[in-house]
Design a protein that fits this description.
The chain is an alpha+beta fold. Helix content is 35%, strand content 36%. It starts with a strand and ends with a helix. It comes from Mustela putorius furo (European domestic ferret).
Length: 221
């Protein structure tokens, strides 16, 4: 599902399942950046296809962008390491393979500040992200490896099984992390409760001694 955007550079959070792909489009200005968070198992191929349209102020419509306009794509893994950083054209295709399971950040921004035509304008970016076996071009694979229709179908099924296994491994990884976090949180809550109890006991003892000293000073006891 969709999630909320955050700050600027705007951070759009997507939950694109590895079992499929979804297309979208978004608008950016000449200095803006859009980032997407994609949950990806390890050793999984991801392919992104995009094309851009430029806002025509006179016609008030989005037109195909000029060849001079480019998009910079940067991908970071869950540890913040740069997996991909490359400049592309006004439309293109980027590919990377995950090596660490978890949230990968995919960011796009234009080089529009170099173009006077785009100054102060808007850019519409159409983006389609494909994950897992959906990133494979099976007609191309069939032609390259000279596979029959039955062999190609078997290849697709094997890829789907492999992707399901990766998804299961990733879910086990997430479950383990959640369990460790829960245990750590429970332990901290326990120690905080013990600390509160000790503080209350010490405070009670101090109050009793203080009252005793007060009564003795007043010669009430």
């Amino acid at each position: 599902g969709w999630r909320r955007a955050m700050g600027r550079p705007a951070l759009l959070l997507l939950a694109l399942c590895a079992a499929g792909a979804r297309g979208l489009y978004f608008h950016i200005g000449e200095t803006e950046k859009r980032c997407f968070i994609e949950e990806i198992p390890d050793e999984t191929m991801v392919i992104g296809n995009y094309r851009t349209q430029m806002w025509d102020k006179q016609k008030e419509v989005f037109l195909p962008s000029t060849p001079g306009l480019g998009m910079h794509v940067e991908v970071k893994d869950p540890e913040g390491k740069v997996v991909l950083s490359r400049q592309y054209g006004s439309e293109g295709r980027f590919t990377f393979t995950s090596h660490t399971p978890g949230d990968h950040q995919i960011c796009l921004h234009s080089n529009s500040t170099r173009m006077a035509l785009f100054a102060g304008g808007r850019l519409r970016v159409h983006l389609d992200i494909q994950v897992g076996e959906h990133a494979n071009n099976y007609p191309e694979i069939a032609a390259r490896d000279k596979l029959t229709e039955l062999q190609l179908r078997a290849r697709q099924l094997l890829d789907q099984v492999e992707q399901i296994q990766k998804e299961q491994d990733y879910q086990r990884y997430r479950e383990e992390r959640f369990r460790l976090t829960s245990e750590s949180t429970n332990q901290r809550v326990l120690w905080w409760s013990i600390a509160q109890t000790v503080i209350l006991i010490l405070t009670g003892i101090w109050q009793m001694r203080h009252l005793k000293s007060f009564f003795e000073a007043k010669k009430l006891v």
